[in-house]
Design goal:
By secondary structure, the protein is α+β, with helices and mostly antiparallel strands. Helices cover about 40% and strands about 15% of the residues. Strand 12 (about 470-480) and strand 13 form a beta hairpin. The longest helix has 18 residues, at about 170-185. The chain is globular. The model has no long low-confidence stretch (mean pLDDT about 95).
Length: about 550
Amino acid sequence: MPIASSSQSDAPARDPRLRERYLDGLADGIARLLGAIDRNPFRPTYGCLDRQFWHYRTACFPSEMYQEGVLPLALVYTHELPGNRWRGCPRVRELALAGMRFAARSCHRDGSCDDYYPFERALGAAVFSLQAAAKAYTLLAIDDPVLLEWFHRRAGWLISHGESGNLANHHALAALGLWRVAEITGSPAYRQAAEERIGRVLAWQDDEGWFEEYGGADPGYQTVTLDCMAKLRRATGNQILDEPIRRGVRFARHFLHPDGSFAGEYGSRGTSHFYPHGMELLAAVSAEAADLADGFLNALARATHAYFSDDRLFAHRLGNRIEAYLDWSPVRARPPGAEQPIFVHFANAGLVVSRHGDRQTVVSTARNGIFKHFAPRMPCLTDAGLVVETDDGAVAVSQSHDRRRAAQVALEDGGQVRITVSGMLDAAPAETATPLKQSLLHVGMWLVGRWFRTTVRQLLQQRVITGRRPLPIRFARTIEILEGSPSLRVTDTIELASPAITIRRMAFGTDHQAAYVAACGVYHDSVLQPWTELADQVEALNRDRRVVVVREF
């Protein structure tokens, strides 16, 4: 799948009006960045984009994740774009440079940086900011010894460090950042390190096409990884990337919804990310990539996309959308023909997709039957699983991710799909910061934890992301997708497996995420669907120890 020129004469043209949608909200986004950055050159925080640190002073250290905002500033400075009043503005260039220099002087001596807590040395923040800064450095034609020295330190740290847990998107970003630093410095060591990281990412690709994110498939983060792979394919010319990219895009295409929205709660990390730039780079040679890009543009036009609007997340997509506009392909690969009804079971991922025209249902068996359902003239329906509160105040959920979960998936006679999955509920403590916990963490990291970053990260991951503590509550779900109609029948069986446990409250939620993921919980219209309170079932469950709830949508 080479990154082909978009001048192929035999490829169908795309609607040029859609391209402008990539720049929807550009003015507000850039204004927000320019409001977030410390613009006072007399302060030591000059160039910091973490307003919680330099302005509100509610954080005791800056998160370098925010310095990713230097790339959108560099892009609007260097490119003519519709409605771009910042093109060639010297102050914008100055502030982008200040943002890079702040990252250089605020990081640790070894080139690492922090994100959530002191001495974290977070790979995620390191690679998001590095690849953005290296691209901005090139765009702005900078020659700065201070930044070059920082690039060397950061690249050196990346070469010798990883992180606990397999997050393909972080390592794809690391490969991209290392390659960009290699292009700036001419270092063959960084080029080789980038190729080694690419190899690691490819080793984490399942035969079904997905790249691993904490032990499973997350279609949202899949687009982040594919974005990096497409950029690297163009930069390196390495044809070994063609087949993995093709399989990765084909997998992702199944999670484009009829309303143009993408992914969501059913992924291993529950995200609705969509990075369009990589899809634009591939659109002329991949019908699936063109579908994904056009689907996102149509979602922007209809306001059915997920909104990444908070201070931490909005810069992720802002720069990527500008790049997608700049590399927009006026042609698309020719699709193979009219879209046919699809039923596919990704057994390794624990995901099932049934699609027939404007009707689509996606079910995660790995997450105990979480589903999204789309039908004509109906709002998107999301069920993120059962939430239970016991009489002693414990909260349990059915949605914990486990690809080993027992599941049966069948396409029955007549085209009806039947999915059955079961498992125990897991405790879902509401983990929040307190002055005492923050003080202990920060002091502990200062005194001891700085030398055991991986151990500390593993402990925190276990506590808020990957850890599971089953409670004696069984949950079984059967989903029947009825052929020839938009109907969906869901049968849930809830059973108390211990005589000592009683229930105070329970409900089926539409938009909750139990494990911590920074990029989940964003706004999409589906979050306005009400939760299904099960107050009328609580008494029967406590009395009979088992209830069955049948719903038809």
